User: Fold this.
Amino acid sequence: MSNSPFWHNLFRPEHKERQTICELWLETPIFEGISHKQCLKLANDMPIRRYEIDEAVFTQGEIGIGTCLILKGSINICSGDKVLASLHEGDFFGEVALVIESPRTATAIASSESEIVFFLRPQLEQLLSQSPRLGSHLMQNLARVMANRLGSTNALLEAHHVTE
Amino acid sequence: MLLNKILNPFSKAILSFTFLLIISVLLIWLLNPVIVPILVSLVLYVCLSPFHLWLKKLGWRSDLSALCILLTLIFLITVPGSLILSALSEQMTLWQSKASTAGQSLNILLSDISSLLAQWQFHIEVDQLKSNIMSVFSSGDETLLHSISDMLVGISTSLLLVPFITFFLLRDFDSLRNRLLNALPNRYFELGWLIYFKVADQTEGYVRAVLIQQSILATVAAIGFWVADFESPIILGAIAGVLGLIPYLGPALGLIPPFYLVLASTPLNYDSMYAAVAVIGVAYVIDNLFVIPLIVAKFANLHPLIALLSIIIFGNFFGILGMMAAIPLMAISNIMLSQLILSFNPQKFKAIIV
Assistant:
């Protein structure tokens, strides 16, 4: 019973992993140019969840509330039965939900026992209203990330058309 | 899993909503002995949290900032708060002692009305009507004045708990909330946060907007009563402001105290009665034409019929507090239910955003 994600999620020791979370976020393009102190402040409020192997982090079509960072383990991003990407510690996914309230476009499944940190949309909105400069910096980074992802998707589609 | 396959999204949403409702009712039942201080503390938390955030932004530690706010609150409650409450309670006792004079004046007033109506062949039972009206003021346990004084006594006895609950809410609310939401199963984690943020955002906005609205209403009414030369205009204005929390019935209830004062003074002065109607009327016209559309409307988007029915039903079960809580509770239920329906039925969501 003690290994169940429910008890782990409920009685997780607070602030122990915050430093690690902060360091992992700072390595992502979303937190580029953000100071360690500012990042730690944000990381303190980010919920951490534990997932068992083959457990869904989120399912395609569900409404998302934030982006996820892999603290431990690995995650498969799937569409139907097809695995689109395999992500590992330090990778992030589901960033569209950080900008708009919309259904998830793919399913994320834990391919090993994993721990995920959520950066929630309302946290970003709160940041935008309380520290507009920091908030807009994060938004700019986020826009860059999404533009890059759009670029790679376009390139993939183009390649797909050429091979066809 | 089997249940998931059998139920359609709407039934799933209704089932989840019913489950949440049962948990909320159980929680209210469990917290019943301390529900008033908790509610007052939550309202104070909503009002004081921007100040707390501002202090934290200035570099104050969270506990130090909460302590500073707590000390200010204790000072405000012990010094001016106790003075206001004792003045209010004295005024209530004085008003209740004038019940017999008010009864006699009411008799004269009703007789006048009755003879006036008799000219147009309308007949009313003066004694019956009088005893019905007077029962509101002077007898029985479920009377309006008793409800108001019970509410004041309830608030004043729980005032001691309020600063401490508010302190811990200011210091630890986020961590308590995170722990509570962490108890959700992984499957409903995102949905839980989504509903929480929507409900919190709407409720915080509603509480702040209503407090501003009631302050404006109370100020306008107090100025009006002062201009109309009423006894204790500030208390009358404050009562009108508090009763204004009850939509639709508020204006009528707000008229009771000034009418009562007019009836309790001898000789019976009809002009003061018209003045009371004018004051409350002007205060509510300003409230409905300017204050509500600008400040409150966006936070409680309910159909008037649903709002009216919920006020009557909640009032029947929980008295004046129930009437005041009816609109925000219905608005919260509305958000929860619609969010659950959208979450269990993403196709509908897509249709809405397209």
